[in-house]
Design a protein that fits this description.
Elements lengths: L10 H12 L7 E3 L1 H7 L2 E6 L11 H6 L5 H6 L1 E4 L3 H12 L4 E5 L5 H9 L3 E4 L4 H15 L2 E2 L6 H7 L1 H9 L5 E5 L4 H13 L4 E7 L4 H8 L22 H10 L2 E5 L1 H15 L5 H11 L10 E6 L6 H4 L6
Parallel strand pairs: 2-10, 3-4, 3-6, 4-5, 7-8, 7-10, 8-9
Antiparallel strand pairs: 1-2
Helix pairs in contact: 5-6, 8-10, 9-10, 10-12, 13-14
């Protein structure tokens, strides 16, 4: 599959992606949660991507994309803009493949995330105060230096890499009926939905967004990507003003439902998972559990449900001020 191919990945591309990704990334566990099962009436398992290298699923996409770059693209290097997980995934995947990586981050980015990105071998450029300004600088550097730009979600090769999460779920639990996935820009749910349904067409895929940033829900309703006038969301992985073109097209076709819940309920779910499951999850990763706890996933009792815990890169400073229920 080439980057200018507009055809979404199919079974062959996902198997190729699995080969590339599995050479360097973990097959993360699918954990049973008796407590969450008892609380919801479903049979629930948790896809634990917080145990992935770099602490989230985000390394999978670059591990699939980078081997497909031309020799010239590899020589020139890659660039992305990100405040966290995408930065670290790109940085480590580039290091694995011997490619120079530049990551543009806002000047007020969390110091620990900046340090982690540099620790994986990337050059970090600090610019602006928000992602949009950092991204503008990344695009300028593409024009100035010829880097290959790596979009955080609107990229078919990245989508195929992220879809390996769906392949692993179906391999470990082919009986699964429903997969619940967080949505930021839409790369993860696009890949999981396509991959899982290629193996089990009847499986239900449900996306979860912050009600303060329902970009995918509104885009699906409109039939095209919309730019949100306002984003009232503080959770990094869910705070996107505009979801991807490829992602909207795929989600409209293969995702069964999108639900939303406010940040406060997502943070409650984050603490619930830490307390009851003994797992450290970031906000976006807790959104599927929050959807279950608040009754947003409707299915018969005993339905086999997978919650995708997309990552665990939560800064301890983010936990201050959150209260236990």
């Amino acid at each position: 599959m080439t980057s200018d191919d507009s055809r979404p990945p199919g079974p062959a591309e996902f198997e190729e992606a699995r080969r590339r990704v599995s050479a360097h990334a973990y097959h993360t566990p699918l954990l049973t949660s008796r407590t969450l099962s008892a609380a919801t009436g479903f049979e629930v398992r948790l896809k634990a991507e917080m145990f992935q290298r770099t602490g989230s699923y985000k390394i999978r996409g670059p591990l699939n994309k980078f081997p497909q770059l031309s020799d010239e693209q590899k020589r020139r290097g890659v660039i992305c803009s990100s405040a966290g997980n995408h930065a670290q995934g790109v940085a480590l995947a580039a290091a694995i493949h011997g490619i120079k990586a530049v990551v543009v981050m806002a000047e007020n980015a969390t110091p620990s995330k900046v340090a982690a990105t540099r620790g994986y071998g990337a050059e970090v450029v600090l610019h602006g105060t928000i992602w949009d300004e950092a991204n503008e600088r990344a695009r300028e550097l593409v024009r100035e230096r010829g880097y290959t730009y790596v979009h955080p979600f609107d990229d078919l090769e990245l989508i195929a890499g992220q879809g390996t999460v769906g392949l692993e779920i179906m391999e470990d639990w082919p009986e699964a009926d429903v997969v619940v996935v967080p949505i930021g820009g839409g790369g993860l749910i696009s890949g999981i939905a396509l991959a899982a349904k290629s193996l089990k067409p009847g499986i239900r895929i449900i996306g979860v967004e912050s009600s303060g940033a329902p970009g995918m829900q509104q885009s699906v309703a409109a039939g095209h990507p919309v730019v949100l006038d306002r984003v009232d969301c503080v959770i990094d992985g869910l705070r996107v003003r505009r979801v991807g073109d490829h992602n909207v097209a795929i989600v409209r076709r293969v995702v069964d439902e999108i639900v939303t819940l406010p940040d406060a309920e997502i943070f409650d779910a984050m603490l619930w998972v830490m307390q009851h499951c003994k797992l450290v999850v970031e906000g976006a990763a807790a959104a599927p559990v929050g959807a279950l706890l608040h009754g947003l996933v409707t299915a018969p009792p005993g339905t086999r449900v997978v919650c995708v815990l997309s990552g665990g890169n939560v800064g301890l400073e983010q936990l201050r001020g959150l209260s236990w229920n």
